[in-house]
Amino acid sequence: MVACGAAASLIISLGLSVSAAQADTAPADPLDANSEAAFPPRANGVWMYDRDRAGAFDPGRWINLINKYNAAATPGNELGQVFSYGSDMETYCEDDDADKCTLDDLNMYYTPDSVGYESTGAYVDGLDPIDNDPSGAAARPVVMTPVIDGRIGPEGYLRNFNDLSESLARDYADKASKELCADGRIDGIQFDLEPFDVTTPNGQYYFYLQIAKNFAGDHDGDPGNDPYGCVDAAHPQGRFFSFFTFAAAIEPGTVSASNVHDVVTSYGNGLIIASLYDLNNLPAGTLNDLPTYTGSVQQEVANMKAWAQELEIPYAFGIPASASAHEYTTCDGPDCRPGKNGATGYPMLDYTKAAVTALHDSAVDSDPLFRGTSIWDFGEGINVDGNAFQPAPAPAEVLLYLTHNLTRPDAEQPGSPEPTPAPTVTVTAQPSPAPAPTVTATPAPPTGDLYETPGFHYVNGRKWMTTCEPYSVTIRCWTYIWGTQVQYTGGQFVKVNGWLFNNLTYVAAPRSVWKDNKLAYDNSWTAADGRRWRTQCETALTGRNGCRSWAEATVIEPTGSGYALVKKFVFNNIVRFSN
């Protein structure tokens, strides 16, 4: 995970949140993720950071997006665990010398007056329970898992962590446990202390061993003495914890694998989350091109599953849904470098699909050790050493895909009763030249009709989804409708349920900013790719103060005996004028 950014989280239909367990539940079997006693719980997740692009703190910034996502997601693909930023861990030892460290030099800042504490409260209060289980099971609260961040080494702010003595590392874990377990709203903690390294019995190793002990309520070996309150009525099994690394940390036969096994299984309350992004060792800004990434992610998933099974430890994955420092659409900075094939970026959805396909191909969903998939991220973008990466947060098309594919791809899902003719390619016109010069002011979010109101909607018996973004002096919005599309695949026509592109809307702006743009006056033209376009304005069809454009595309239409490919004009976009 990248610390200098913003992020988010999900829950899956199997398993319960920690707070839903009963006090008399038998000890959990970590190998049985599908049992009600599963612990740590099985849950998809999303990392999120509550700061806007200007850096202002906005607690609960992603509540509405998560609730709307879950309303659209099918069972097994929900967002039901949130990884909100909790605090940093920092060490300030005399002379930067671990031998001179005292407990007062070892810090964490998850206190009632901290922003992390406030974020936790906002999400606990604002997130809707997961309530779409087809079996009619009771709604499940979202699992609350704050992230404790740290950068280890001479360039970080947790510089002496690995060099701490066993006793001081355990004392540091006690100090952290006291702060964290004091908040009864927390179900678990993700420790994002990077780089993860337990190749020796170092400070990091002993810290995690003591965290496991404390979170189980067994601080001093006496289960009846739990000075930090990690076990309570809402958490009868205590709290769980995870750490973020790569599959190499558990390669069979290594000291690291043995030490990870000790940490995770000593009290049965830990799990490992393997990153499926930043899958290379190259400097930040060097693109991991899609062909290379596809091969790497397939291998990483296969290794993680096989090695976790050998060690019998629970595991989860983190996938790219917004830009990382190596998998991105755009990079702006001094260190941006093309991939091996010369590419400079890819649509984020391509990376997401490659990761999800690797998970499906390896059948991790059926593995009782598997604990879910988490997405990176809901935030406003990352910047590493002066290099800015986009897109962020996770784009709408990625979220739409994940609502039906994240962990459990749909078999049969409700759609429109009859196939909806649709283009075989997505037609998205980009005005050229741009309708207006770039301005520094940010347009106000649209609040108009379905086509310019962000979020999920239910109108005229159909499910709709709209997402918007600033575009020059206006805002543009993409609208999708849930339905059944006929696709021509493998030499035959096949019905597929999913989100279908409906239209692109440019929110009302002065006519002057659209001067000489072909999307804003009556005309017909042929684009550079050979497709024909036509625009119509101020008619009964378009209404006053607006234009509509159609693009030529190949679509599938029903015939008396089946389906046929037909070339026709398809509605694509709306331009609205404010005067």
TrEMBL record:
Name of the protein: GH18 domain-containing protein
Keyword check for Signal: yes
Signal peptide (residue range): 1-23
Region (Disordered): 408-447
Residue ranges with Low complexity bias: 423-442
UniProt keyword list: Signal
